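Let us practice reading a record.
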Amino acid sequence: MAHTRSRCSSAPALPPATLLRAANTMIEANKPVASANGHTIRLVGKDEYKEAAECLAEAFVDDEVARYFLDMPDTARWANKRKWELHASILEYVTYALVMGERDE
């Protein structure tokens, strides 16, 4: 999918398993966690959910599960821009829900 580069780090994306382990550790300890390559993983505040969603959209642009809704028969004729917009919107809504859900606990 074609899209413009965001303000996300230009460093290579971490494997999903590494992100999951770090996120679980961070949540249990309630503090940021540094990964092996020096990136820091931290909780995202509600005022930065859009930037976080944009980074997630870029990180999962080629993920088969994330592309499930984009590669359906009824979207086969969609332009890549339209697919990118749907992909980014889905991750924005999910990120917002997760950030707001974190505040309820």
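A brief commentary: The chain has a mean pLDDT of 76.
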